[in-house]
Amino acid sequence: MVIKSEEDIVKAIKEDEWMMNLLKAVKKLDLPDWWICAGFVRSKIWDILHNFTVRTPLPDIDVIYFDPEQINELEEKKLEEKLLLLVPDIPWSVKNQARMHIRNKMAPYSSSVDAISKFTETVTALGVKLDEKDNVILTAPWGITDVVNLEVKPTPYYSEANARINFYEHRIKKKNWKLTWDKVKIYLPGGSN
Predict the structure, then answer these.
(1) Is the pLDDT score of 192 beyond 60?
(2) pTM for this entry
(3) How many helices (H) and strands (E) does the chain have?
(4) How far is CA 3 from CA 29, 45, 51, 123, 178, in A?
(5) Mean pLDDT score of the chain, rounded to an integer?
(6) Where are the domains of the chain?
(7) Is the model more confident about 82 or about 165?
(8) How far from 123 is each of 50, 71, 155, CA to CA, in Å?
(9) pLDDT tens column, 42-75
(10) CATH architecture of 6-145
């Protein structure tokens, strides 16, 4: 399979029974402005682009939503428990983006997509969800060019001109994506790696 467009990404996810089952489980919670994001989407794309026949294991499944009325972290834990009942043995991680700006030391987010736009890398700033008819909806605030070209770059919020670039560099080293996906090109300040 070739991944060159948003339509290709949506098609790949729609054809992946495991991913669709997880999306349907999260949809059942009826969370406001919900998405499964980050590695859930990126790893699928990179696995295809590396011709992997076995899914790369994910450390967690990032579920986000936006509910300014209920910002208690305990609510997120309850949602993780509900998801575990629906689909056991999945490393669910649920975060209300209406509170995450505090932890991330940022201005408040206006929505889940706004939060996704402030993820560290453009290749991670991706999310998918299901509409009322179970169609896959993709959000990519910084586009899909970097992820389909296997180029890891900071989002503008973590760019070189910004003091947050150190966090980007630390995260890139910690993730060590090239160990799993050897075609990935990592861009660091002052050149690529």
Answers:
(1) no
(2) 0.94
(3) 9, 8
(4) 30, 7, 11, 14, 19
(5) 94
(6) 6-145
(7) 82
(8) 15, 27, 9
(9) 999 999 999 999 999 999 999 999 999 999 999 9
(10) 2-Layer Sandwich (3.30)
Burial of 112 (0-12, 13-18, 19+ CB in 10 A): buried
- The distance from CA 100 to its chain's CA centroid, rounded to whole angstroms, is 15
Short-list 89, 100, 103, 121, CA closest to 33: 100
Dihedral, CA atoms, 91, 30, 45, 182, nearest 10 degrees? -30
Number of residues in the chain:
193
Structure tokens at 159: 């760019």
Short-list 137, 155, 138, CA closest to 146: 155
Tokens, residue 87: 């689909």
Residue pointed to by tokens 């990179």: 46
Cα three-residue angle 7-11-12, rounded to 5 degrees: 120
